[in-house]
Structures are given as C-alpha cells and as structure tokens.
Amino acid sequence: MGMTNFSDLSNTMADAVEAVSKSIVSVRAERPISGTVVGDGLVLTVAHVLHGDEVTVMTHDGREMSATVAGRDPSSDLALLKVDGLKLSALSASEGLRVGELLLAVGRPQHGVQATLGMMERQATANPAEGDAPERGQRSSGWLPSGAAPFRGVSGGALIDARGGLVGVLNAGVSRGELLAVPAGRAMKVADLLGRTGRVPRGYLGIATQPVMFPAKEKEEASTETQPPRGGRSQGREGRGREGWGGGRGRGGWERGTWGGRGRWDQGGRVGLTVVSVEEGSPAAQAGLLVGDVLLSLDHEAVRRPPELLWRIRERAGQSLSARILRGGQEQDVTLVVGER
Prior knowledge:
The longest helix is centred in the N-terminal third of the chain and has 19 residues, at 3-21. Mean pLDDT is 80; it is low at 126-141 and 218-268. This protein has a 6-stranded antiparallel beta barrel with strand order 1-2-3-6-5-4. Strand 19 (294-298) and strand 20 form a beta hairpin. By secondary structure, it is α+β, with helices and mostly antiparallel strands. Helices cover 15% and strands 36% of the residues. The radius of gyration is 24 Å and the shape is elongated. It has helices at residues 3-21, 184-197, 217-222, 283-286, 306-313; strands at 24-28, 33-39, 42-46, 54-58, 64-73, 78-82, 102-107, 114-119, 144-145, 158-161, 166-171, 180-183, 203-204, 207-214, 234-235, 241-247, 254-258, 270-278, 294-298, 301-302, 320-327, 330-337, 339-340. It has 5 helices and 23 strands.
C-alpha cells in the first residue's frame, strides 16, 4: 500500500469517527460508560452498571442532561435511556458489511471521544437466541467480536464501519479481555421494545433439553449391535454436542460423525431435543410433555439445539405452536401454548 493510499485510509477512518462522535454520549453511572443515540432522545447503553432509574448524560458540546431509564433487557445487557431535549442525530444500522472490513470502536467515557481499530471477523448469527449474554470468560456466537482493544468506558459505545454505519453496541463486561457488540439489528429491536413497553417479553415452555441423535431408519434396521463401538460422544456445555455417533459403516452400530451444516448428522440420522426436566405448572406440563420425550420440530421446522429452541419461542408468548415429539418410539403431535416471563 502506497503512502497516499494509507493516508486516504487514515483520513476515511478519522472522518467516520468525527461523523458519529456527536451521536455518542457519556453516561454517568456506577463508573463512566458510553451511550449510543438510536432515536429522538433515545440512548442505548449497557445495563449492568445502572442501578437506579435516573442517570446523567454528557453530550459532545458539554451539556449535562438528566436521563430516565426506560427499561432494561438482561438478556442483551442493554438499557434504554430517555433524554428530553437531547436533539442529537441517531445512528443508522450498517448495511452490506463484509467479513474483513475495518471497524471502529467509538466511545465517550468522560469528556472526549475515543476510538480503537478492529475488524469484522465474522457475520452475526441469524439466530438471536445465541445473542444472549455469555457468562464471563465465555463467548456467545451471537455476539460480534469487534477485534478492537477495549478501553475504560467504551461499553455502551458504538461499533461502526468506515462509512459511519452502526454495526453494534459495545460491551466490554461480558467476556474478559474481549470487546464484544450486540449486533445493530438486535440492538435496535431491543430499543424499540423497551421504548414501547419498558421490557422485552420472553416466551418460555418450562423444559430443559439436551440434543440426542438417533440413526436414520435404514441405518437403525441395519444395526445388529446393542452397544456403540468404543469411542464416545463428546458434548459441550449445556448439552450442545459437537460430535458423536453417526451411521454405521459395514459393521453395524454407529460410528463417530460430526454435525452437518443444517444440524443433520453428516453420516445419516436425525437430531432432536430430549426433554430432561419439566417445570411443574409450566406451559409444557399443561401440554402433557414428559421427561424422556424427544422434541423433533416446532411448526414443522426441526429443532436441534437448546439455543435454537429458545430463539424459536422467545418472542411468541401467548401463541400456540404445533410440536412433533417422539414418545415410546412413536411420533405424535401436541399443541404448546408459549408462556411469558
């Protein structure tokens, strides 16, 4: 890269920071954090450092303004602030972002804007269930890694592209040493719900599940062994198995396989969710689900992992879903009414 091109790139990134800096405020909370303007008088920030319903924000032009916490969403660790008379431009979500593009983490922890350089390492998952806040020290695939170095007070700031588009709302408190971001699309949806209702309702069924794989019918009929060969199935945290037993190859029984791109076993077979507990009085209990049932599909679409199940029901409180289960070797349909909590 020639010196001229490097200078152009540097100016482009500086221009992007300057363009969004007026839409980033400082939030006076338990410790200095940032906030991102997402609407008329609306600011998104992180929830875990807000312990009251009133805070103060400081704008780029030195105004100190009172803000009210309109709502919190523990799942995404986002809080929405309402600031009367703020009159700052809202950031718009980035469009058409590609892996490998340079990104900027922009915050205003106290009086001045700060920025660090990152990169788009991967696309955000289309499954928002995986965007739930990870435990400290663990990464959730639904969060965007910014690739940028965290700095004090960056949480609540904006992850932007070189055009000044909002890529996500930053959070340095959910993964030690790593600066993650709630993807812009989800952050905007949370802001809308918090602004209208003060909360983000979550659907639930009241069951705990773990993945189970059973062979395709033709493999099952061909099997002559009652026990799988030596080896075993490796399962990750919360029963998210990553490899296990696939269709047999000439010797009957099952051999090791891997998860396919669409959640199917690469070497044949089906994947479902085994019900390992049912909460008393829950929607699942009222529908007659039992421990040992295998959940195969919801509304005729397969379910293969616990986070996928959570995603499918999280915003469908009060709705009826058709579920297909496997019980005692027989498939049957049940109707589930999603609860809310």
